[in-house]
Amino acid sequence: MIARVGSGAPRVGITGIGAYAPERVLTNADLVKMVDTSDEWIVERTGIRQRHVAEPDQATSDIAAPAAREALECAGVAPEEVELVVVATASPNMLFPASASFVAEEIGARNAAAYDLLAGCTGFVHALSQGYAAVAVELAKRALVVGLETLSKLMNWRDRTTCVLFGDGAGAVVLERVEDGGFLGFELGWDRSGGFDLCVPAGGSRAPASPATIEQDLHHLQMNGREVCEFATRAMVSSAEQLLVECRLTVDEVDVYVPHRANRRIIDHAVRHVGLAPEKARVNVEHYGNTSSASIRICLHEAVAAGTMFAGQTVLMSAVGAGLTWGSALVVWGDGR
Question: What are the tens digits of pLDDT across the range 289-307?
Fold first, then answer.
């Protein structure tokens, strides 16, 4: 699915942004004590040096609230003015009710509709498209889109192929109609052929929780790393290229590239094959690891805070995730309303 925002369509942009990472930091040196690995092995293959991990009593919605409040404050929007809360997560508080309802309650968004969206690491881009659409057609004047994960709760800490990769964190943006800047288009997709290359096999209707599923360790995240990596390198490039063509932009017109932080190899491949100058990419995978649907949002927040992304710049975002899914978004960064 690919769509370019028409010239006559209302402008919808990001007017506020926030992020939060749990205080606890798990370094590669810490992991060496837990599983058969080494700092050199992790850095060489992923570029990751540390990741943030939620405390045992921190649920997914708990780490969302600080990011959401910061985004609202940045936008100058009161919680009760939010009319839609979309939470993208693969690690919800529970199957239902939606984690979005917990987030809305905690921040005081009592006038908002609230629901979760599950698209793995691509969740942020998919949620952005839904938030954009709702605001564009005036279903909501203001939407709060949150990407958050506590994937540490789903990790098998004896599996070095997965536990070294992922971290916890949250990011949030406020979407409103704007006078300057705004979204230019979205490209979203899905490929069922690798649907079980990245999954948590049990706990749903296909394999309900039972002594057998627990004994077989089916409630932890499982991944076919080679297949996912090959898919990711293809999908992130093709998605970005197709969106640029649809929006009639050249690679040279992209000022900032914010890829999903899967690992450093995939990011470097995407930058090189899309044809972007390396200095245009915003990457912080070494500090956070793969925070799934929160990764792009945290990186956007850091870029804005550091002054390396500012109004008028064209920003390209791309991600791949479980499903297997992919998605890209183009936005001209604004300075608020």
Answer: 999 999 998 999 999 988 8
User: Is there a catalytic annotation at residue 93?
Assistant: no
What pLDDT, on a 0 to 100 scale, did the predictor assign at position 315? Answer: 96
Which residues are CB-neighbours of 114 under 8 A, at least 6 positions away? 84, 85, 86, 87, 98, 100, 101, 103, 104
Q: In 76-190, which ranges are continuous DSSP H helix?
A: 99-107, 123-136, 160-163
- 57 burial (CB, 10 Å; 0-12 / 13-18 / 19+) is exposed
pLDDT of residue 211: 96
Give the three-class secondary structure for 199.
strand
Q: Which residues pair with 20 in a beta bridge?
A: 170
- The packing angle between helices 123-136 and 295-306, to 10°, is 70
CB 316 within 8 A of CB 254: yes
Q: What's residue 175's pLDDT? A: 98
Annotated catalytic residue, options 74, 93, 121, 269: 121
Q: What integer is the mean pLDDT of 84-98?
A: 96
Q: Which residue is catalytic, options 28, 93, 263, 290?
A: 290
Q: Is 263 a catalytic residue?
A: no
For 135-144, what is each residue's pLDDT tens digit? 999 999 999 9
Which candidate in 52, 74, 126, 260 is catalytic? 260
CA 223 distance to own-chain centroid:
18
Q: Is 290 a catalytic residue?
A: yes
Nearest of 284, 254, 281 to residue 270 by alpha carbon: 281
